[in-house]
Amino acid sequence: MHTALQHTYASLQALKAQEDANGSVAIVISETSPEPVNWKKSITKHVVTCLECGASFKQLSVRHLKEHGLDGRSYREKYSIPRTQPLAAKETTARRKEIVQSSRPWEKAPTYVKAQEEKQRGKAAVAPRKRTAQRKGTARAKA
Ligand SMILES: [Zn+2]
C-alpha cells in the first residue's frame, strides 16, 4: 500500500515535469532516441530509480517490478543490467554486505565452532596449571 502510494506520487511528479517541459520546448521521447537508457544513472548512493516509471526506492522490489509485468531478471535484460548488479541503492547494498561480514554466518557453522573449541582446549592444556592452582589456593586462604 505504502509502495503503491509512493509509486503514484512519483508518477504524478514525472507527469508534472513533462507537462512543464512541454509548455515551452518540444521534448524528444526516449523511445525514438538511439541512445540506450543508462541504467547506471538509475542506481545512486541513496536511491534506485525504476526505469519503467521513474519512482525511487531504497530497493527495487519484485512486487514493484510485477506492476510493470517484469521481474528482476526481465528488468535487467530489458535495460542491459548485469545479473550481478543488485537492484538497490549503493548505500543499501553496502550496508547489507557489512551486516553479512560482521555477523560472519560461517562461524555459526557447527564444524567451525567445534574446531574453535578444540583449539581453546589445546591452549588450556599447555597453560601452566600448577601455578594457577597455587594462586587459587592463596586467594582462597586469604578470603
Ligand atoms: Zn516502476
The structure class reads: mainly alpha
> Which series of helices and strands comes N to C?
HEEHHHHH
Low-confidence stretches: none
Count of helical stretches: 6
**What do the pLDDT scores average to?**
79
Chain oligomer state: single chain
Largest sheet: 2 strands, antiparallel
What would you call the shape?
elongated
What percent strand? Answer: under 5%
User: Main sheet: which strands, in order across?
Assistant: 1-2
Q: What distance lies between the first and last C-alpha atoms, to the nearest angstrom?
A: 67 Å
Beta strand count: 2
CA-based gyration radius: 29 Å
What does this entry look like structurally?
The protein is an all-alpha fold and 143 residues long. It has helices spanning 2-24, 62-67, 72-78, 90-103, 110-126, 129-142; strands at 48-49, 56-57. It has a two-stranded antiparallel sheet with strand order 1-2. The longest helix is centred in the first third of the chain and has 23 residues, at 2-24.
Describe this protein with a few key phrases.
3% strand, binds zinc ion, 2 strands, 143 residues, mainly alpha
Topology summary:
Elements: H1 2-24, E1 48-49, E2 56-57, H2 62-67, H3 72-78, H4 90-103, H5 110-126, H6 129-142
Antiparallel strand pairs: 1-2
Residues 50, 52-53, 55, 64, 68 line the site of zinc ion.
